[in-house]
Amino acid sequence: MSDNPEHDQPMPLVSHLTELRTRLLRCVAVIFLIFAGLFSFAQQIYTLVSAPLRDHLPANATMIATDVASPFLTPFKLTMIVSLFLAIPFILQQIWGFIAPGLYRHEKRVAIPLLVSSILLFYAGMAFAYFLVFPLMFKFFAAATPDGVAMMTDIASYLDFVMTLFFAFGVAFEIPVAVVLLIWIGVVDVKYLKKARPYVIIGCFVVGMVLTPPDIFSQTLLAVPMWLLFEIGVLCGSLIRKRGHDEQPADDHNDQPPATQP
Fold this sequence. Notes:
The protein has 262 residues and is mostly helical. The protein has ten helices and no strands. It has helices at residues 13-38, 42-54, 70-86, 88-99, 105-143, 155-172, 175-184, 190-195, 197-211, 216-254. The longest helix is centred in the middle third of the chain and has 39 residues, at 105-143.
């Protein structure tokens, strides 16, 4: 809710839809602007992303393109995805600008740190995958290649594989945000999550088994950070919940959500 009463007047549905359209167009424009700036570096971007695999290819082995248009379309696709990832802060800022007027002040105090944390954690998950998981994973794959088989990965297949893992690790690192939200809105409480800790740890290792090669080291490399992120989420959620109980009565007395008109 805005502190300025003039900003709290009812807004008709058409105005909401117009604002939503404007913000969506801004997001699309920013994505294409970033893409336009990166397009000339598409080949270098793909070279950078493929480095963890190429570093572990056997001697004289290279990546291959089995489709006629792959040498152009694959870096093009990667550059578009990178543009989207780089635009995430702006996209979330536009989403926040759209929903913020309908929130209480005490809700904004929680939502803003969660929004910033979600961006940083998503990028941290991708960096974790690129710098730690990928080298171990591709080293294992190269060592496990049977005799008589040449390891020559298609560039399009590699892109699909790493993008899936980037997204998976980015989402996995959102665990603290998800835990805090569940506690904040009252779906679960801290006591329940602490009791469920053994099941959470098992679940983390199951996810590690699915997303990493079948060796205990790389599985642990994913499972342990996920468990630690869960513990951080429980700690932050308990602090926010306690503070919310202390402040909400005063906030609710003095702070009403803005009225809306269909």
